[in-house]
Amino acid sequence: MDDIIFGKNSVLEALESGEREINKILISKNLHSDAKLNKIKELAQRKGVVFQFVAKEKFAPYAEFNHQGVIAQIAPIEYMDLDEFLEMPHQNDSLIILDGIEDSHNLGAIIRTAVCAGVSAIIIPSRRSVQVNSVVEKTSAGAINHIPIIKVNSLTSAVEKLKNSNWWIIATDASAKDNYYDIKYNDMNFAIIMGAEHAGVSKSLLKSSDFTVKIPMLKDFNSLNVSNALAIIIFEAVRQKLTEKKFTK
To answer: Which residue range(s) make up the domain with 178?
Structure first.
């Protein structure tokens, strides 16, 4: 069964990346042409992708989404196997492990941040977590096509596999003693565990982690969104990597 992606940016990115098979693009007859829409039609024609102009009533089932008058029927995402990922060569690489993220917008934003930061893959659990859906696809602004998503039955087992393959595990916890910038990320392959919006990282995963870190707050008001918190931490790793390259030339 096809997935649905919404909006000009998401459809255009899917066409440009070529990572996913697009079966059909629906465009509202009432939609005025602009640069992005013209590019969508041009790429679709070049790649042999069918596009149809349809009445706006066809978009009624998707009224809750900001579809911008453009919808594409696309092949479902193919999840990567963890063992397959671990067989690849890795040197100073990064992973993100998501422990029970429930909000589709958060997952999409995390995927977008991860791609920008050069993260190697994202691991999600097969249960008690949001899966990749149309909202995730749109929120990621096409980034979903540029990073492997690994789905596992047990995060605890996945963490053990990673540790046995010389990956270091860094869990986030508001009560941790160490701050996120105390870690030397460049010295290792590392995976950052981000917890659910309200529950945080589970106790079993905290126990299995090599490090636990927090983002220090100047006010006693712990309200950072999980995607924002991840961006702060992962771009500290990027900063360290770029700084090291600057001084080792």
So the answer is: 82-247
